[in-house]
TrEMBL record:
This is Histidinol dehydrogenase. GO terms for biological process: L-histidine biosynthetic process. It comes from Pseudoneobacillus rhizosphaerae. Its cofactor is Zn(2+). PROSITE patterns: HISOL_DEHYDROGENASE. The gene is hisD. GO terms for molecular function: histidinol dehydrogenase activity; NAD binding; zinc ion binding.
Length: 421
């Protein structure tokens, strides 16, 4: 890994999946075809891009049964326990509707209502991501969404990976379609003969999925356009080089564009971690991906002090932040920008990715400066509630009318004054 002093450039920001002009035109064409021709277009694109011809897109009960036969029972139990942890954590995010009353009869409030329907995109094809199912579906369930639709591209066998189906069953998804890519996003947004449209789409995907989500936004809602995964580790001289290196590589193996960064005031730790990364890379199954990631986006920043290190962390605003210091709680209050914060050596990033209960759908590319992890409120909407009594309006009618006339809106003024003629 490259070791730099902080006087040099400090950045892990890469462009969020913007795509090429050719890719954007391709996605727009796919979306338009699905809008016009529905199932027929989805079927053609699925055959073209996923090598699967499917007359019916929905997952059958037989496929669910087969999935549970393939996945070992102890692994099913692990998925169930992870689901319980995620459910418990997100239950604490629930907020009730509320109302307040005043002596003059005014009632003001906020009504919280779950979305009617949500689509969950789960990446697939050559890989399986059961954790993505749990992280996207369970908050929607907790929020009270009645209709949750899952889509995932089929593999060469025309099926969704067994682990993904098991996670979907555990999470309580009843409507699942074996479609992926931009055509799946279009189907969710505008509907086809087999797929009824939804109000929002969440979940990660490749560049074509990201571009499709950007295109349909406004007709429906989306969660975010995520960039490659990233981790920043804030560490002092007490951190163990082998553990720091392992955590850096846990992100590097995600993607060649993933970013792994160590920020530390300890030159000794920096050099030891750099050597340890080299050593651990040798035996890593996804060595080619991790090595490319470390080469292009891996860096160790050595600072003059811990205060300077914290300043760098806040500038980077990472997706994942680990604090591996003698007393990690000491620095928590100084962290302003991070998607998820992992405190101490026993809180390695995969703990949150899979099992602790926090959500692993996190803001990337510095967007933690203004956005948050996927949560229950992402699946709800809020309505303002206003009730004015005759007494309350009479007390304030002249003020409201005056404000309306200040903006040149005479009809607004007359609308309140008309009540007292």
């Amino acid at each position: 890994m490259k070791i730099k002093r902080v006087s040099e450039s400090v950045s892990i920001k890469r462009s969020i999946e913007s795509g090429t002009q050719e890719q954007l035109l391709q996605v727009k064409a796919i979306i338009e075809e699905v809008r016009i021709r529905g199932d027929e277009a989805v079927r053609e694109f699925t055959e073209k891009y996923d090598d699967s011809y499917l007359e019916l897109f929905s997952v059958t009960q037989t496929e669910f049964d087969e999935a549970f036969e393939v996945i070992e029972e102890n692994m099913v139990d692990v998925i169930k326990e992870a689901a319980e942890n995620i459910h418990s954590y997100h239950m604490k995010q629930l907020r009730p509707s509320w109302m307040t009353t005043e002596e003059n009869g005014t009632i003001l409030g906020q009504k919280i209502t779950p979305l009617d329907s949500v689509g969950v995109y789960v990446p697939g094809g050559t890989a399986a991501y059961p954790s993505s199912v749990l992280m996207n579906v369970i908050p929607a369930k907790v929020a009270g969404v009645e209709r949750i639709v899952m889509v995932s591209p089929p593999g060469e066998n025309g099926k969704i990976p067994p682990a993904v189906l098991v996670a979907a069953k555990v999470a309580g998804v009843k409507e699942i379609y074996k479609i992926g890519g931009a055509q799946a996003i279009a189907a969710l947004a505008y509907g086809t003969e087999q797929v009824r449209p939804v109000d929002k789409v969440v979940g990660p995907g490749n560049i074509y999925v990201a571009l499709a989500k950007k295109e349909v936004f406004g007709d429906i809602d989306i969660d975010m356009i995520a960039g490659p995964s990233e981790i920043v580790i804030l560490a002092d001289q007490t951190a163990r080089p082998n553990e720091v290196a392992a955590d850096l590589l846990s992100q590097a193996e995600h993607d060649e564009r993933a970013s792994s960064v160590l920020v530390t005031p300890s030159q000794e730790l920096a050099e030891a971690v750099a050597e340890e990364v080299k050593r651990q890379l040798i035996e890593l199954p996804r060595k080619k991906i991790a090595e490319k990631s470390i080469q292009d986006y891996g860096v160790i920043y050595v600072t003059e002090s811990m205060d300077e290190a914290i300043s760098i962390v806040n500038e980077l605003a990472p997706e994942h932040l680990e604090i591996l210091t003698e007393n990690p709680m000491e620095y928590l209050g100084q962290i302003k920008h991070a998607g998820a914060i992992f405190l101490g050596r026993f809180s390695s990033e995969p703990v949150g990715d899979y099992f602790a209960g926090t959500n692993h759908v996190l803001p990337t590319n510095g967007t933690a400066r203004f956005s948050s992890p996927l949560n229950v409120e992402d699946f709800q909407k809020k309505s303002s509630v206003i009730y004015y009594s005759e007494k309350a309006l009479n007390q304030n009618v002249h003020k409201i009318a005056a404000f309306a006339r200040l903006e040149g809106l005479e009809a607004h003024a007359r609308a309140v004054e008309e009540r007292f003629k």
